[in-house]
């Protein structure tokens, strides 16, 4: 039996370690551990993709509800917005959005609760079938998922669609009159 140690500590080596320094993992053990971790990582990444897609759907539906709540609130305070969809052009969605964001600068003419949508919400538009979009149907907004054709307000999932407030021109005309 031999005594070995470092820094003055005396330890007793097990019989199978005599004549050999304390070693880490063998190459076989290392390959097995890396293989197991790789399989677990692949399973996790696949599960995360499903959660990410579910999150996108939930956020798009929440944004649709936000816009439609604003349309209904606007109708209670002003008039019902009836504005014909423009087909492959997203100009109708932007016109409705700006109407919902507008607050008359004259405090005597400003409607209760306006603006009905945060004026910092400035989404882009898209007609790509790869994007989530919000399309105006004539009375409310609906969700266009990837694969659906049509144009609408582009859903950004990174928050870049909230920027500086939109500056309304002095002669702004609300849509749907």
UniProtKB/TrEMBL annotation:
Keywords: Membrane, Transmembrane, Transmembrane helix. The chain crosses the membrane at residues 21-43. Pfam families: N_methyl. Gene3D superfamilies: Glycoprotein, Type 4 Pilin (3.30.700.10). NCBIfam families: IV_pilin_GFxxxE. This is Prepilin-type N-terminal cleavage/methylation domain-containing protein. It comes from Prosthecobacter vanneervenii.
């Amino acid at each position: 039996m031999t005594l070995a140690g470092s820094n003055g500590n005396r330890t007793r080596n097990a019989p199978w370690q005599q004549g050999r320094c304390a070693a880490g993992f063998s190459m076989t053990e290392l390959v097995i551990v890396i293989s197991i971790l790789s399989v677990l990582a692949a399973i996790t990444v696949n599960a995360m993709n499903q959660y990410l897609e579910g999150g996108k759907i939930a956020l798009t539906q929440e944004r649709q509800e936000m816009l439609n709540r604003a349309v209904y609130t606007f109708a209670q305070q002003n008039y019902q917005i009836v504005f014909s969809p423009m087909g492959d052009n997203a100009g109708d969605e932007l016109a409705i959005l700006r109407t919902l964001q507008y607050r008359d600068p004259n405090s005597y003419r400003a409607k209760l609760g306006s603006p009905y949508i945060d004026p910092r919400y400035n989404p882009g538009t898209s007609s790509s079938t790869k994007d989530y979009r919000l399309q105006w149907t004539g009375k409310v907004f609906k969700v266009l998922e990837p694969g659906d054709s049509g144009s609408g307000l582009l859903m950004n999932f990174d928050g870049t669609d909230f920027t500086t407030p939109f500056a309304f021109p002095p002669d702004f005309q609300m849509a749907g009159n």
